[in-house]
Amino acid sequence: KQEVTQIPAALSVPEGENLVLNCSFTDSAIYNLQWFRQDPGKGLTSLLLIQSSQREQTSGRLNASLDKSSGRSTLYIAASQPGDSATYLCAVIGGADGLTFGKGTHLIIQP
Amino acid sequence: EPEVTQTPSHQVTQMGQEVILRCVPISNHLYFYWYRQILGQKVEFLVSFYNNEISEKSEIFDDQFSVERPDGSNFTLKIRSTKLEDSAMYFCASQGRRFSGNTIYFGEGSWLTVV
Question: Among A75, A93, B51, B86, which residue has the least CB neighbours within 10 Å?
Answer without folding.
Answer: B51
